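Q: What would this chain look like folded?
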Amino acid sequence: MTASANDDSAVRSDAVDPAPRPHATEEEVAAAREDTKLAQVLYHDWEAETYDDKWSISYDERCIDYARGRFDAVAGDQPLPYGRALELGCGTGFFLLNLMQSGIAEKGSVTDLSPGMVKVALRNGQNLGLDVDGRVADAETIPYEDDTFDLVVGHAVLHHIPDVEQTLREVLRVLKPGGRFVFAGEPSTVGDFYARWLGRATWEATTRITKLPALASWRRPQEELDESSRAAALEAVVDIHTFDPSDLEHLAKSAGADNVHAETEEFAAALLGWPVRTFEAAVPQDKLGWGWAKFAFGAWKKLTWLDETVLKRVVPRSLFYNVMITGTKPEK
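A: My prediction, written as structure tokens:
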């Protein structure tokens, strides 16, 4: 999981990456409640091998278009491709790998605090035939030299990081002068409130209803439900921040970025999306086939169209669920 030999000069540490820890014990979960970075590792190692299925992540046209759409929505038209791109908090590689497939960057580096996530991201990159290396890394101390990357990206990562401004300073340090960063998928303060409420209500309703004998085949085994509950407990620890878009813009400017701009998206789409995702997590996977997936994706697309063409004109941007932000490193 270390960078390739050709990139040794750009890497600040030659330490061996730790191994994934895919099953946290109750004792480890208890310890993680007092240590947010341990919680990040345990939770994301726990989720790594099933994360793509849980969030309906793919590396085909559907998610390529989604990732590229997020990039374009906040960064606008850019001269492409970027030479070398870095993803912070890569997870399974969803954002960077799909951006690379869309022509955004020629070469990529994936980093995450979770060894399990880096392992899966590198495997996904290899399966796609992409030029990608990776490291286990803390986003507050990025293990690459100054002026290494043309682009830094991340999806749903900033809200996990204790010191966001320090991370943005690190992002600017490893970017080349004039290089750009793009972060998407961050929860807004208002959006996070209604998303969590909808998620909890859906989980409670689904797990209660499937106790009925007539719906027993729709109930996941109790061991799996208990494990999901422990994972949810960790999730509450690893989700540290929510963002008002204006405050996030101010934070990026304070870190030293130029050309800072934030956008928001998903209001009606989020009101559907969170109950759908929670329901999918609460029932056996074999109960939900292609018809369900087609319904869920089709409904999300229609509500996204409503958000973009109608609601964005009348609803304050702070009420939308997702926050995206971009900026550049000042030219020398």
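The mean pLDDT is 90.
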